[in-house]
Write a structure and sequence with these properties.
Structural class: alpha+beta
Number of helices: 7
Bound molecules: zinc ion
Oligomer: single chain
Largest sheet: 4 strands, antiparallel
Strand content: 5-15%
Helix content: 40-55%
């Protein structure tokens, strides 16, 4: 059975961001955050450099907004080169999928997939003193699941207007794509 969070290396990169919060002391908010993501309490809207979420806790929606840095021009150029090569070597992938080897290539070249917590800006207006709060953590877990379902999202988060190297088959309707279709206008 695949892991619930981080079933692919792409999602796993984001899970590492969340779980880096336990480096100093166990964070009791993590099990709660996982439970919220697991039970579909998090509604996500994802775009380049931003993630907006509504996290339902006890019937109340808590809005969360994350802002993340995009790749630099150099990182983007390197990533596009690696992607073109990887997609050429792995033809016939489902739309939205990316080869696992590409994640390893990017990591080897120091091109981050996920963003460490220190480098992203998280907005949540709740009164929980401990940061990141459970709403932000749940958003990140839900994001890791979304990325596992559709690895290409991990790239779209970090760079705008990236054109896939291989054109999509027009007869293929990817189910995982439907949830984000409105957002991307595809
Ligand atoms: Zn919060």
């Amino acid at each position: 059975m695949p892991a619930e969070f981080g079933a692919t290396p792409w999602g796993r990169a984001w899970v590492r961001t969340v779980e880096s919060t336990v480096a100093s002391a166990p964070n009791p908010a993590l099990p709660k955050a996982r439970s919220l993501a697991r039970n579909h309490a998090v509604t996500l809207s994802v775009g380049t450099g931003s993630v907006e979420a509504d996290v339902m806790v006890s019937g109340t929606g808590q809005p969360v907004r994350l802002q993340l840095p995009c790749w630099s021009d150099q990182e983007r150029a390197d990533a596009e080169r690696l992607m073109a090569k990887a997609l050429d070597e792995h033809r016939g992938l489902a739309v939205g999928d990316l080869p696992d080897s590409l994640e390893a290539d990017l990591r080897r070249d120091g091109i981050g997939i996920a963003v460490p917590l220190d480098d992203l800006t998280a907005h949540c207006s709740c009164r929980v003193r401990r940061r990141p709060c459970v709403h932000v953590l749940a958003t990140l877990y839900a994001l890791s699941q979304r990325v596992d379902e559709r690895p290409r999202l991990a790239v779209e988060l970090r760079t705008s207007a990236w054109e896939p190297a291989t054109p999509a088959d027009p007869d293929w309707t990817p189910l995982a794509e439907l949830g984000v279709a409105d957002f991307y206008g595809t």
